[in-house]
From TrEMBL:
One of its GO terms (molecular function) is phosphorelay sensor kinase activity. SMART domains: HATPase_c (SM00387), HisKA (SM00388). Keywords: Kinase, Phosphoprotein, Transferase, Two-component regulatory system. InterPro entries: HATPase_C_sf, HATPase_dom, His_kinase_dom, HisK_dim/P_dom, HisK_dim/P_sf, Sensor_HK_Regulatory, Sig_transdc_His_kin-like_C. This is histidine kinase. SUPFAM superfamilies: ATPase domain of HSP90 chaperone/DNA topoisomerase II/histidine kinase, Homodimeric domain of signal transducing histidine kinase.
Length: 344
């Protein structure tokens, strides 16, 4: 264990079962004091006295959704980090929750790393429980309020249209609940056991999305494969909704584009089996592409940040892979690979 001895360690990090390091501040810079054995076994050796941010960079330990490690040290809550160094690759878990635990008024503290639950499981995704709970409570509130108001109006007037709106609100709430279950329970709600023509599912999904002036082009025949048609439909819906909602905004995300978005779906070329969904909107900055599938990521203040996380979850639970890049027109292009076509 790196440091000046357990007897001098006020926080006793050697007793912690997960990686942990003790640090203090000098001239505003966080410096390493000591690390425990799980830290060195997981991330690699360090030298006492190094700046924490520099040491973490050398070890390949970086925040998932912040610009610098200083943000981890100043956060009041847990921050998701990834470990990409050689030692981390050998130790198993790749993502952790990092939390600063203050020690005493002298300014020293512990930085503790807790492995993310389910990390490494097939189809797993990083789930921020607090964020998902907030999304559910917020998103359910609107259709619940609609249903309550329409039910009251229907009882007073007897107009069947109000009851139809109640039914639609209930359908919306059911979709939200199923989305969260897809993230949280995975295989319990995804059952790929039927032959599915993906181009038919894509066209049906387009009809369920509010597309305004956007248009859909199906450029070639998509594979037919064994899948869960309902969940794959949700995958397409979320990709289409992402294209329509974000493709209507200019590159600075503050001005509306004057052109209607065109969304194109087609098979992948060459030896790859799968399909792509792309648009001619403003695209996603390259620096943000790795984050788009994380629950909670959204460039829209009103977005839930669950749509693309659900897409990635559904793909993974089918044994597929999904990647994001740039379309030929500068928009967003999602490619889904690993699909096994049904034999003719």
């Amino acid at each position: 264990m790196t440091g000046d001895g357990a007897d001098a360690d006020p926080i006793r990090i050697e007793r912690w079962p997960d990686p942990a390091c003790r640090f203090g501040f000098e001239d505003g810079t966080a410096l390493l004091r000591a690390v425990n054995d799980p830290f060195e076994a997981t991330f690699g050796p360090v030298t006492a006295g190094q700046p924490v941010a520099a040491a973490m960079a050398d070890l390949g330990v970086t925040p998932v959704s912040t610009d610098g490690f200083e943000a981890v040290l100043s956060s009041d809550g847990p921050v998701r980090v990834r470990a990409d160094g050689d030692a981390a690759a050998d130790s198993g878990a790749k993502r952790y929750l990092a939390r600063v635990v203050p020690s005493d008024p002298d300014g020293e503290a512990v930085l503790a790393f807790v492995p993310r639950p389910g990390e490494g499981d097939e189809g797993s995704v990083d789930i921020d429980v607090d964020h998902v709970a907030s999304v559910v409570s917020h998103d359910l509130r609107n259709p619940l309020d609609v249903a309550t108001a329409r039910l009251r109006a229907g009882r007073e007037t007897g107009d069947d249209d109000h009851f139809e709106r109640v039914a639609a609100a209930h359908d919306r709430m059911e979709r939200i609940i199923r989305d969260v279950l897809t993230l949280a329970r995975g295989r319990d709600v995804v059952d790929p056991d039927e032959t599915v023509a993906l181009d038919v599912v894509a066209e049906d999904a387009w009809e369920t999305v509010e597309t305004a002036d956007a248009t859909l082009t199906v450029d070639g025949s998509l594979p037919t494969t064994t899948a869960d048609a309902d969940r794959v439909g949700r995958l397409f819906e979320n990709l289409f909704r992402n294209a329509v909602e974000h493709g209507s905004t200019g590159p600075d995300e503050a001005t509306e584009s004057t052109d209607a978005v065109t969304v194109t779906v087609g098979p992948l070329g060459g030896t790859r089996t799968g399909f792509y969904v792309e648009d001619d909107g403003p695209g996603i900055p390259e620096t943000d592409r790795e984050r788009v599938f994380e629950p909670g990521y959204s460039t829209d203040d009103h977005g839930t940040g669950l749509g693309l996380a659900i897409v990635a979850r559904i793909a993974a639970l089918h044994g597929w892979s999904i990647a994001v890049g740039e379309s030929t027109s500068g928009g967003v292009r999602f490619e889904v690979t690993g699909i096994e076509p049904e034999s003719p």
